[in-house]
Design goal:
Layout lengths: L2 H13 E12 L5 E12 L13 E5 L12 H7 L12 E5 L23 H15 L7 E5 L1 H12 L7 E4 L8 H15 L15 H5 L7 H8 L42 H7 L18 E7 L2 H11 L4 H4 L1 H5 L10 H14 L6 E10 L8 E11 L5 E9 L5 E11 L5
Parallel strand pairs: 3-4, 3-5, 5-6
Antiparallel strand pairs: 1-2, 2-4, 7-9, 8-11, 9-10, 10-11
Helix pairs in contact: 3-4
Length: 425
């Protein structure tokens, strides 16, 4: 570190303050509450108000997974941004560096609750940040919200939830989309390893991964091997994902009922994709592995949606909207009672296209549909698809799709384009 950077950081520290903001009876989107939520934070500089009393120089800076607000005091960040004349000159701007829930010196499971700590997601973190800024620091406006990685995702939520409260957002190192690919795979494997660990968990405390569990994700040729070995259910799995613990005690797997509709499992093919393909009745595939695409073909698939479906979907995606979990809140809306996530409705269409029509090897090219009625917990929905056109030279078809409830009412309708890969021969 150069002397100039050292002096800069010393000057920045002298301008700063650190404290913890306490929120009593903080309610999480999951419905759980924490008697007292602690949100630790650092501030640098001083807020400045205009003639009408609006703060014009406050900047909220949000860290990523496993980080803390203190990371933004490092030379790599502060040395490039906080100095005189630099973009976040601390003599001009008022910087707020919070430790998010579960991080740094804020409330986290390791404080004592361990596995009993409330389930929290991005929306809970953002809600706590907003309470800190408004109730804790008594600010009525932000110049910018800047976030990196997980904090980047938070900045998108800020832009969606509190647009009038800020002038702009600077999302760094993320996209406003669901986590996917190897990133999600590694995280989910670790979660499954902890949740399905057969070792005792006294007091609800999560145990550290045993050596053989820590080594397992790194065994094999790479991501493709891991996906084939971990993403699909192992041999002997039941319809709801139950497994033989002696073979693989913690798979990453789709924990749904729909997989049962693929047909009986072939115990000699394990749980890989090719095993699921060969479980599909032969009549569903055309000659030499090419799917038969012809105008007028139809298929349908039904599913009764339960509270467990809603909970599992929320755990996977973070969608803890009170419309799905808070009966009192839902009762005050035009729905009148709890509704399921829209992704569960469209998910049945995905299963229909992937397993029935056109069938295995099919991917969506585009989708255009609209929801016409809510779907409630306990409803039995039926997804229907019909091929209305087929490309002359490519395995591409257009589908007319519809989802209805048990009463016959249409809850979703639209169209989609699909591409079907031929099965290898």
């Amino acid at each position: 570190m150069s002397p100039a950077i050292f002096l800069l950081l010393a000057a920045v520290a002298a301008q700063g303050d650190t404290a913890s903001f306490l929120i009593d009876n903080f309610r999480f989107a999951s419905g759980e509450t924490l008697p007292r939520l602690r949100l630790h934070y650092r501030t640098i500089g001083r807020p400045r108000r205009d003639a009408s009393g609006v703060v014009r120089n406050a900047v909220l800076i949000l860290h990523g997974t496993g980080g803390s607000g203190g990371q933004f005091l490092s030379p790599l960040f502060a040395g490039e941004l906080y100095g005189a004349g630099q973009p976040l000159d601390t003599t001009v701007y008022y910087l707020i560096l919070p430790d998010n829930i579960g991080h740094g010196r804020s409330s986290r499971p390791s404080d004592g609750l361990h596995a009993r700590f409330p389930h929290y997601a991005y929306q809970d973190m953002v809600a706590a940040q907003y309470r800190l800024v408004t109730d804790g620091l008594h600010l009525n406006h932000l110049r910018l919200v800047i976030g990196t990685s997980m904090g980047c995702m938070h900045s998108w939520l800020w832009a969606e939830r509190y647009p009038p409260f800020m002038d702009g957002v600077v999302p760094l190192a993320c996209l406003p989309a669901q986590i996917a690919g190897r990133n999600r795979m590694w995280r989910r494997m670790i979660i499954d390893d902890i949740k399905t660990d057969p070792a005792p968990v006294p007091g609800g405390r999560l145990t550290r991964l045993r050596p053989e569990r820590r080594a397992r994700p790194h065994h094999g040729a790479g991501a493709r091997d891991q996906l084939r070995r971990r993403l699909h259910q192992p041999a002997g799995a039941g319809h709801h994902g139950a497994i033989d613990a002696a073979r693989d005690p913690c798979p990453l797997r789709p924990d749904t009922d729909e997989r049962a509709h693929a047909g009986a499992r072939n115990p000699h093919r394990g749980g890989r994709v090719e095993g699921a393909l060969h479980a599909v009745p032969l009549g569903a595939r055309g000659a030499r592995g090419q799917m038969s695409l012809s105008v007028g073909r139809k298929a349908r698939r039904s599913l009764t949606l339960t509270a467990d479906h809603v909970k599992t979907f929320a755990q996977l995606t973070g969608d803890y909207n009170p419309l799905h979990f808070d009966p009192k809140f839902a009762a005050r809306t035009k729905f009148g009672k709890l509704v399921v996530q829209g992704g569960l409705t469209t998910g049945l269409l995905h299963a229909l296209v992937a397993m029935d029509l056109p069938g295995p090897g099919t991917v969506f090219l585009s989708q255009s549909w609209k929801f016409t009625a809510p779907v409630y917990i306990g409803d039995t929905i039926t997804a229907e698809a019909e091929i209305v056109s087929v490309h002359d030279t490519k395995p591409v078809c257009e589908l007319k799709v519809r989802v209805t409830r048990q009463t016959g009412e249409t809850v979703l309708e639209g169209e989609a384009w699909c591409y079907t890969f031929a099965e290898a021969t």
